[in-house]
Specification:
240 residues, OB fold (Dihydrolipoamide Acetyltransferase, E2P), five-stranded mixed β-barrel
Length: 240
C-alpha cells in the first residue's frame, strides 16, 4: 500500500515490517525424541507435543517440530534447525535419513489435501492402507473399484441404491438367516436345484406350476385337499 502525507501529496515510503525474531539456520543430528504425556481429560492445556534434542554445531538444542515440517524426525536424522534470537528452536525439515527407516507424515492438526482444478493420485508399489479410529467417508459423483481379490469384513452393512447390477461367474453365500422382501421377484434360470433338509413351505393366493415336458411329485405320504373342487384331467389317468 502507498501512503500520502496530508494535502501536500507527498508519497511516503511503504512501512517495512520488521521480523519478530531473527533466525539462524543450523544443521544437526537428532539424538533423542521426547514426547510429553497427554493432558488430562477436560484440561485446558495444550495437546501432547514432541521435543527433539538435536546435536548441532552450536551445541545441543531442544527444538520443536515446525508446522511446515510434516515428516516426523527420528533419532539419527540429519535435520535443519532454525534457532531464534529469543532462544526457541524449530526443526524445519529432515535432510537425510537411513534408507531402511520408514517415512512418516504426521501432524497434530487436521490435514486437507486438495486440488482445486486437477486430480489427486495416491500410488504405492506394495500396498495402500487407510486406518482411522473414527469414521471413514467416501463421497464422489462416480466411483470405480478394480481389484484382483476383494475381501470385506464388517459388523453391520447397510446398502441403499436406486439400481444395482451384478455380473458374476460364481457366487457362494453362507448365512444363518436370510430374509428378503420384494414387491416383484422375477428369475430366469437354465437349471435350478434345491436341497431342503427339513421343511419347504410356499404360501400364496394363487399357485401356478407349469412343466413343458414332465412333472413328478413323489413322497412317502402325499395329501392333496381342496375346500371345493379337485380336478384331474388328462388323456390317461393311472391310479395305483
Amino acid at each position: 500500500m502507498k501512503a500520502y502525507e496530508g494535502d501536500r501529496g507527498t508519497m511516503l515510503k511503504p512501512a517495512i515490517r520488521q521480523p519478530i525474531a531473527e533466525a539462524a539456520q543450523l544443521e544437526g543430528v537428532v539424538r533423542r525424541v521426547e514426547v510429553r504425556a497427554p493432558a488430562l481429560v477436560g484440561s485446558a492445556a495444550e495437546p501432547p507435543e514432541g521435543r527433539y534434542v538435536v546435536d548441532s554445531g552450536a551445541g545441543e538444542l531442544v527444538a520443536r517440530r515446525a508446522v511446515g515440517c510434516l515428516v516426523a524426525p527420528l533419532e539419527g536424522d540429519l535435520v535443519l534447525v532454525a534457532r531464534l534470537s529469543d532462544g526457541r528452536a524449530y526443526v524445519l525439515s529432515v535432510l537425510e535419513r537411513d534408507a531402511e527407516a520408514p517415512l512418516s507424515l504426521e501432524s497434530e492438526r487436521s490435514i486437507l489435501i486438495k486440488s482445486s482444478r486437477g486430480r489427486v493420485d495416491v500410488a504405492a508399489e506394495a500396498a495402500v492402507c487407510l486406518t482411522t479410529a473414527g469414521a471413514l467417508a467416501l463421497t464422489s459423483v462416480a466411483m470405480t473399484l478394480s481389484s484382483g481379490d476383494t475381501e470385506l469384513r464388517t459388523g453391520t452393512l447397510d446398502l441403499e441404491a436406486d439400481r444395482a447390477t451384478a455380473r458374476l461367474d460364481r457366487i457362494t453365500v453362507v448365512a444363518g438367516l436370510v430374509e428378503s422382501v420384494f414387491d416383484t421377484l422375477s428369475q430366469r434360470l437354465k437349471r435350478s436345484r434345491r436341497v431342503v433338509e427339513t421343511i419347504d413351505q410356499v404360501r400364496a393366493e394363487t399357485l401356478d406350476l407349469i412343466a413343458g415336458n414332465a412333472a413328478r411329485i413323489h413322497a412317502k405320504c402325499a395329501v392333496l385337499t381342496a375346500d371345493q373342487l379337485v380336478k384331474v384331467d388328462g388323456e390317461q389317468i393311472h391310479i395305483g
